[in-house]
Amino acid sequence: MSNTDSQALQRAICAEICRRDGLRAREIAAELGLDHQTVNHVLYSSPLMKELCWQDRDFRWHGIVRQERPHLGLQEFAGYYGTVGDFLDLDEERWLALLSEGCANIGRSLSDTRGLLHSFRDCREQMLRLFRDLLDMAGEACLGWELAFELRLKRSRHVRIYADVLVVTEDRVFALEFKMKDRVEPGEVLQSAKYVPYLEIVFGSRYEVIPVLVLTGARELFRYEPIGKSDAVLPVCSGDMLFNVFDEYLGFLKQ
């Protein structure tokens, strides 16, 4: 089975568990038209599935993260999780305290305290600017969107799935990778797109996952960059142009 097929299978099984909850492997297999052994293999062998789902004493499977708004359970994997409105109500020190506490809970190392806290503050400023722009241009609908900082998921012992910031709208997940730089580096474009297939498993088929590379040292930058040698591209922008990325996909200015 190819890696793409394996990810599609994990996505379908995880979505079924999160949609109905409390299912046995045979019920999942019947619903998806799959062989019972295939479903068991995915459930017991995939490290990511083991992190996103759990089995009770009656051999029924449950999902940790709901695949609808609000995504209850997402806070189990994030340094900070809440609505945009919640985030805007917090001052910097309170937000930073909650983020630091959440990072400790998920095992996110804060050993590089000085540089890391500086990057956290920089990231917060970019998000504040984005949501101020959104409130001005699109109204208060964005206040109910979900926001997660420092998402961490385990794929295996040596591989971790990271996201600096997730912004979850009605049907899209913007996965923002922040770099305090002013130039595009191909390796960082690849890094920004790397975790999309796994985030698609977390959020399910109802959501489009959009990776974005944000260069906070740049100004007035917004363009699409190729992802490696593929035909795919992703948006790269400066912090002051992040609103334009959201408008590109959500069409506020057209409305």
Task: Work out the number of β strands.
Answer: 9
Alpha-beta content class = alpha+beta
Looking at the overall shape, the CATH architecture of the largest domain is 3-Layer(aba) Sandwich
Order of helices and strands: HHHHEEEHHHEEEHHEEEH
Report the total helices: 10
CATH topology annotation of the largest domain: Trna Endonuclease, Chain: A, domain 1
Strand content: 15-25%
Distance between the termini: 44 Å
Shape: globular
Account of the 3D structure:
- The protein is α+β, with helices and mostly antiparallel strands and 255 residues long.
- The chain folds into 2 domains: 3-63, Arc Repressor Mutant, subunit A, CATH 1.10.10; 74-250, Trna Endonuclease, Chain: A, domain 1.
- The chain contains 10 helices and 9 strands.
- The protein has a 7-stranded mixed beta sheet with strand order 3-4-5-6-7-9-8, with helices on both faces. Strands 1-2 form a two-stranded antiparallel ribbon.
- The radius of gyration is 19 Å and the shape is globular.
- The N and C termini lie far apart (44 Å).
